[in-house]
């Protein structure tokens, strides 16, 4: 892939256009992945089992996130017991931080589809019958940003492996180990955002279960 990307850049540079082979390689990797998500989303509109599989993937991320929260709670309790008993628990603060970060990243895709992310709908509501185009614009930009985030999360982890980056805390954990959660979480988020983007194009609605701000009649009474 690396040599092929360099070859493509060599051909492009003949025309006088500057070309970065690393960016070209990233695009060559991302495009098939995006096409695969498009295929799965399209199949999900026709086969319930495919849609259930995608939703199960996002739910799995939420379950893993919850498990990391429980692990963080266990570490905090163990840290309290260690202080009361006078037994040393070196690196406990770092381990709790890793669990919190892993929980946050694994929950991103699940939270998106559960409607837990803040989405300001004022402008979308004002678009009226043209709301679909606004949703496509928002999810399109979000999908590109999520893909960019995922790419650099993976790149950062690879650099940590390359330089053997070690935590400066008492735990002395190789940084790439907790960064794996960041990679998986951002990739799941990118898949979820592209999934919603393609679903809006194909079906006219997203996969988000509940909106943070509901599109209701302003004159309607508030629910208890």
Largest sheet entry: none
Assess the beta-strand content as a share of residues: under 5%
Distance between the termini: 58 Å
H/E series, N to C?
A: HHHHHHH
Give me the Rg, rounded.
22 Å
Structural class by SSE content: mainly alpha
| Average pLDDT number | 83
Low-confidence stretches: 212-224
Report helical residue fraction: over 70%
Total of helices: 7
Gross morphology: globular
Give me the count of strands. 0
Keywords:
disordered C terminus; 7 helices; globular; mainly alpha; 224 residues
Write the layout of secondary structure elements.
Layout: H1 2-14, H2 21-44, H3 48-85, H4 92-113, H5 122-126, H6 131-163, H7 176-203
Helix pairs in contact: 1-2, 2-3, 2-7, 3-4, 4-7, 6-7
């Amino acid at each position: 892939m690396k040599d092929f990307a360099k070859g493509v850049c060599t051909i492009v540079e003949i025309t006088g256009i500057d070309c970065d082979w690393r960016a070209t390689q990233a695009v060559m990797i991302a495009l098939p992945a995006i096409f695969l998500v498009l295929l799965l989303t399209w199949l999900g509109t026709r086969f319930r089992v495919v849609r259930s599989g995608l939703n199960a993937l996002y739910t799995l991320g939420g379950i893993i996130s919850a498990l990391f929260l429980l692990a963080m709670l266990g570490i905090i309790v163990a840290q309290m017991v260690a202080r009361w008993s006078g037994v040393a628990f070196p690196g406990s603060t770092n381990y709790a931080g890793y669990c919190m970060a892993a929980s946050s990243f694994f929950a991103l895709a699940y939270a998106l589809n559960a409607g837990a992310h803040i989405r300001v709908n004022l402008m979308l509501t004002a678009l009226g019958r043209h709301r679909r185009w606004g949703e496509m614009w928002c999810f399109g930009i979000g999908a590109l940003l999520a893909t960019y985030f995922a790419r650099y999360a993976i790149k950062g982890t690879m650099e940590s492996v390359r330089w053997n980056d070690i935590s400066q805390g008492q735990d002395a954990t190789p940084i790439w180990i907790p960064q794996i959660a960041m990679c998986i979480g951002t990739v799941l988020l990118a898949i979820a955002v592209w999934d919603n983007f393609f679903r809006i194009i194909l079906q006219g609605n997203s996969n988000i279960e509940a909106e943070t701000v509901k599109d209701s009649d302003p004159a309607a009474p508030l629910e208890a």
